């Protein structure tokens, strides 16, 4: 590992990646609400510039969504008419943005905007219209002063650090609609756990819903997961041999098997990062955070750059071309060979895989080049119609920022349980008193 591996983020890093651009774009849209009256009307020249920029983004984003076939509608006031295609372009957005003055975000504003970005991350459909607009060259260049202002705050400096093994929290969510029942961890009192215990007071099974009815079941294990991926790939290939133009959506994640321990560290105020930054967020509002004590010999793979993800895929490739072909082409516009890491093989060398906050911003949602066509075995059943290139690539999808997947048995004990509840009025997570 080179001395620059954990180099802090730069403005160029942010503007070159989908999630980084979205973060900067979101901050540019935020502004100071005290410069608007109770009706939302701007009170100052800077607020008027921001208001015009917001309006331009709204219309241009709506038109971009509509052009991509999204089912969107615009609610019009009396006398208003729907904007015609091309009425507001990315160039118009960039021009409005140039009159907006960059401001230094606070830690709270940064976390809130980051949560909005992560909650809206999707890998099974085209990017949102606003994300499409932000990716335009003119808008990217107009965003540069905002990216540089953000970097200059120093708030992102710590986002490139390696895994903090002394501050890892696993989460159990209380969400009956989406999780199938209350995880058993909610029957345990909060607070520190007696360290005299020789084994964990809370087991892995306690972090998941019971296997009742349609509830989620606990892990298949690596063998069952691999068997499922291989079987699914074979089924999709057979279907594509019958009809090469058949486009059927499928699994979109590139994460290890469900049911492994996962954890994140905390923000400066000790709120677990994992309660705020959740991809494909269902609006979860209550969680128990379990502090983990890890075995010191754990061997960690750090994902700080797209090349780190590429190396995992290059060394341990698992071909998922047929089953990811359509769903990932929707979000990237790219068709061709796709691989993900073969997690059982990764687990033979690494105990955990950690995606830092910086690594997430640089990598998530980007098409990561892995190798040439020789990386994937040629087969008559391999779909090729409509391919946009001959490369083998990957997509890091379904990971949360700062998340570590623990591939092997390296969790020694759970040392503390803390309950967190989302406060809708304050728009923030709050720690509840210890029982």
Description:
There is one protein chain. The chain has 2 domains: 11-160, no CATH class; 168-431, no CATH class. The model is unreliable at 212-218 (pLDDT under 50). The strands form 3 sheets. Strands 1, 2, 4, 12 and 13 form a 5-stranded antiparallel beta sheet that branches. It has a 4-stranded mixed beta sheet with strand order 3-11-8-5. By secondary structure, it is an alpha+beta fold. It is globular and about 60 Å long. It has 14 helices and 13 strands.
Output the number of helix runs.
14
Order of helices and strands: HHHHHHHEHEHEHEEHEHEHEHEEEEE
Indicate the low-confidence ranges by residue numbers: 212-218
How many domains? The number is 2
**Percent of residues in β-strands:** 5-15%
Outline: globular
Strand segment count: 13
Q: Which structural class fits the helix and strand makeup?
A: alpha+beta
Nearest-integer average pLDDT:
89
Distance between the termini: 44 Å
How much helix, percentage-wise, in residues? 25-40%
Instruction: State the major sheet.
Output: 5 strands, antiparallel
Radius of gyration: 23 Å
Region (Disordered): 246-266
């Amino acid at each position: 590992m080179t001395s620059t591996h954990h180099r802090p983020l730069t403005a160029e890093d942010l503007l070159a990646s989908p999630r980084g651009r979205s973060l900067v774009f979101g901050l540019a849209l935020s502004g100071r609400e005290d410069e608007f009256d109770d009706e939302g009307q701007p009170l100052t020249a800077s607020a008027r510039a921001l208001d015009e920029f917001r309006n331009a983004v709204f219309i241009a984003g709506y038109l971009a969504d509509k052009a991509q076939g999204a089912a969107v509608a615009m609610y019009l006031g009396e006398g208003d008419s729907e904007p015609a295609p091309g009425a507001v372009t990315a160039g118009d957005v960039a021009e409005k943005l140039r009159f907006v003055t960059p401001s230094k975000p606070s830690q709270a504003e940064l976390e809130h905007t980051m949560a909005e970005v992560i909650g809206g991350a999707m890998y099974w459909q085209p990017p949102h219209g606003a994300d499409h607009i932000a990716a335009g060259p003119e808008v990217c260049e107009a965003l540069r002063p905002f990216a540089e202002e953000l970097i200059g705050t120093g708030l992102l400096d710590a986002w490139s650090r390696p895994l903090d093994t002394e501050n890892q929290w696993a989460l159990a969510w209380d969400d009956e609609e989406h999780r199938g029942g209350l995880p058993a961890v909610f029957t345990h009192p909060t607070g520190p756990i007696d360290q005299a215990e020789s084994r964990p007071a809370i087991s892995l099974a306690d972090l998941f819903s019971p296997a009742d009815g349609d509830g989620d079941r606990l892990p298949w294990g690596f063998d069952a997961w691999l068997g499922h991926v291989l079987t699914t790939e074979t089924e999709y290939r057979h279907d594509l041999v019958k009809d090469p133009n058949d486009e059927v959506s499928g699994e979109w994640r590139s994460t290890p098997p469900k049911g492994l321990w996962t954890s994140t560290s905390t923000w400066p105020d000790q709120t677990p990062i994992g309660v705020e930054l959740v991809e494909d967020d269902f609006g979860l509002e209550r969680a128990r955070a379990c502090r983990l004590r890890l075995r010191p010999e754990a061997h960690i793979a750090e994902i700080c750059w797209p090349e780190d993800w590429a190396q995992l895929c290059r060394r341990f490739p698992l071909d998922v071309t047929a089953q990811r072909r359509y769903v990932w082409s929707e979000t990237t516009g790219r068709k061709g060979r796709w691989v993900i890491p073969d997690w059982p093989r990764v687990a033979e060398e690494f105990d955990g895989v950690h995606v830092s906050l910086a690594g997430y911003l640089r990598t998530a949602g980007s098409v990561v080049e892995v190798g040439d066509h020789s990386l994937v075995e040629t087969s008559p059943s391999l779909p090729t119609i409509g391919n946009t290139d001959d490369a083998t690539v990957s997509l890091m999808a379904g990971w949360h920022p700062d998340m570590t997947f623990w591939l092997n048995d390296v969790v020694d004990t759970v040392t503390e349980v803390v309950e967190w509840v989302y406060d809708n009025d304050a728009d923030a997570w709050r720690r509840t008193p210890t029982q």
